[in-house]
């Protein structure tokens, strides 16, 4: 499976089907994108979260992990 196939379900279900390793990897990727490649993050957000509902859902969780969403 590709990220493109997995991402919509992972966003909807808070990665409930992900292993701990996958969750940790996802956190690293999002932190990297937000800190180093914000334009790429915005592109992904426009595609997979055009209404901003997932951003609102995960913002508090991100802050707890030191990720500013």
TrEMBL record:
Coiled coil: none annotated. It comes from the Eukaryota. InterPro entries: A10/PebIII, OS_D_A10/PebIII_sf. PANTHER family: CHEMOSENSORY PROTEIN-RELATED, EJACULATORY BULB-SPECIFIC PROTEIN 3-RELATED. This is Chemosensory protein 1.
């Amino acid at each position: 499976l590709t990220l493109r196939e997995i991402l919509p379900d992972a966003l909807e279900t808070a990665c409930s089907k992900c292993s701990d390793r996958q969750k940790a990897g996802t956190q690293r990727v999002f932190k990297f994108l937000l800190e180093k490649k914000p334009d790429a993050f915005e592109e992904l957000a426009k595609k997979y979260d055009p209404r901003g509902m997932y951003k609102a859902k995960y913002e508090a969780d991100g802050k707890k992990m030191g990720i500013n969403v």
